[in-house]
């Protein structure tokens, strides 16, 4: 990745390091408010390296494109809908009354369902099942999004530039689904904007 070119396009000090300042500017460019962008940028400077998202430009392009779409241009770290539609969903582990609303989508990729909150919490050593609301914190939400990205093999799909499969994995749970992801055209358009900035 040409860090200097990206930094010049973003208008930040060109130090050739993709760190918090550059990533904050990237989130700002794609819609995040300043305080959210700063928190996302700080977290991304750590987690993007841990999960290999900065290892190749296309990984960054697709991650920002998909997450930008899912989170309404990084404006929403919690699903706008109540979550009532998830009530009683056994596939999400929502086994108790109120689980649909309690474990609704949060974070840039919208972590959803008691079972997923429990599994991610066990991975991080954070009791997300007991405290699901903290996933709406931009830094925690970004961490869960990076874990999902890694766990489902989306770096490999990004390496082949398969945005359609990535979107279907995120929204349908299956990259080979014949059914389009919700907002598939919008996902593609958002990712194209990121591509133009990152790759030039």
Describe this entry's structure for a reader:
This protein is mainly alpha-helical and 200 residues long. The protein has helices at 3-10, 20-29, 34-50, 57-70, 99-102, 114-124, 138-151, 154-159, 163-172, 184-199. It folds into two domains: 1-76 and 149-200, no CATH class; 78-136, Endochitinase, domain 2, CATH 3.30.20.10. The protein contains ten helices and no strands. Helix 2 (20-29) crosses helix 3 (34-50), helix 3 (34-50) runs parallel beside helix 7 (138-151) and helix 9 crosses helix 10.
Roughly what fraction of the amino acids lie in strands? under 5%
Taken together, the total number of domains comes to 2
Shape type: globular
Q: What integer value in Å does the Rg equal? A: 16 Å
Q: What share of residues is helical?
A: 55-70%
Largest sheet geometry: none
Count all strands and give the number: 0
Q: What is the element string, with H for helices and E for strands?
A: HHHHHHHHHH
Structural class: mainly alpha
Give the low-pLDDT segments: none
GO molecular function: hydrolase activity
Protein name: Glycoside hydrolase
Pfam family, one: Glyco_hydro_19
Region (Disordered): 87-107
List keywords for this structure.
200 residues, Endochitinase, domain 2, 0% strand
